[in-house]
Amino acid sequence: MKFRSMLAALAVLVLGAAQAQEPIRIGSFLAVTGGAAFLGDPEQKTLELYVERLNAAGGVLGRKLQLIVYDSAGDAEKARTFAKRLIEQDKVDVIVGGSTTGETMAMVPLVEAAGVPFISLAGAVVIVEPVKKWVFKTPHSDRQACERIFVDMKARGATKVALISGAGGFDKSMRAQCLQVAKNHGIEIVADEAYGTGDTDMTAQLTKIKNTPGVQAVLNVGFGQSPAIVTKNHKQLGISQPLYQSHGVASKAFIKLAGDAAEGVRLPAAALLVAETLPDSDPQKKVVLGYKREYEARFKSEISTFGGHAWDGLMLAVEAIRKAGSTDKAKVRDALESIRGFVGIDGVFNMSATDHVGLDISGLRMLEIRKGDWTLVK
């Protein structure tokens, strides 16, 4: 009898050891190729780099991390298929991904039904409002970007604004949010123009804006190549009113596409793009400088805020797993929701049951493009 008890105890120990050696599976689907590759490529590189670094440091809870990434190419249907595979076949512990709002929203019902913690890297406020039990995200919301832009416009004496936006999910969401919060900041939208996803010239829309009486500033809501076209057309038409872009173009790729026309354009973005110019007292400086140097040294290319979103997503997941003391999905979800004072690339995260982003607009810095580079607006 005693021998049987010893065998049973040994079996428990062996099973526990085997489970302890099981990798922690981090699932992801990203727009690594296609029109949104400028988002997904740095996101994938960031996840790969830091999973490697975490594993080299001993992993998490004594277990290695296993990264499973699928390229959705920005397609919502592909994203849904890959999310289903991550949940049912790969049996991931947490998902960090979703480069675009469309991809993210396509798979939200799946993670909600399966009960898998999901941290999105996309921008639209609809991802987390209303709050969804299993869904979190790292970038500032489009509403917060609108508010940060309007605060800057007001400070420059611009209260009558022309809006031009694209047809994508992010574009439509941010346009709606800007229209909603404009009055709260004393801003009047005096023109509201739109362009299609494949449009290669926005001269007609911008001409209407140029001829609209009273316009004091122009705001383009969009991402991809379209904002660069708007920027070039804005200059070609000789529009004197300042042009603002959204945080959806916060990468050097936009500056390269827009060329000289980008001079003077303003947009809100995370501190990462101006890491070296931050004061030493800024709590984010050490984090963003560390990420910038490690990423650029590894990949020999400039950072973008999109890779920063992925850093935040991975590190928030790791922090939650550590806090939970396991990969139990419900415990990890609860731990995510309880994170406070976490200093990341996008800002300082303070999650709660009613806020699954946990950022305020102080994390969005207003930048202006000067001589082909970012400068911090004082």
Structure description:
The protein is an alpha/beta fold. It folds into 2 domains: 195 residues, Response regulator (Rossmann fold); 128 residues, Response regulator (Rossmann fold, 3-Layer(aba) Sandwich), CATH 3.40.50.2300. 43% of the residues lie in helices and 17% in strands. The strands form 4 sheets. The protein has a 5-stranded parallel sheet, sandwiched between helices. It has a 4-stranded parallel sheet with strand order 7-6-8-9. It has a 3-stranded antiparallel sheet with strand order 10-13-14. Helix 11 crosses helix 12. The longest helix has 20 residues. It starts with a helix and ends with a strand.
Mean pLDDT comes to: 93
Structural class: alpha/beta
Radius of gyration computed on alpha carbons: 22 Å
Q: Supply the number of structural domains.
A: 2
Number of E-type strands: 14
The residue ranges in which pLDDT falls below 50 over 5 or more consecutive positions are 11-18
CATH class of the largest domain: Alpha Beta
CATH topology (fold) name of the largest domain:
Rossmann fold
Q: Please tally the helical runs, counting DSSP H or I stretches of 4 or more residues.
A: 12
Task: Provide the CATH architecture of the largest domain.
Answer: 3-Layer(aba) Sandwich
Q: How many strands, which pairing sense, and closed or not: the largest β-sheet? A: 5 strands, parallel
Task: Give the DSSP E fraction (strand runs of 2 or more residues).
Answer: 15-25%
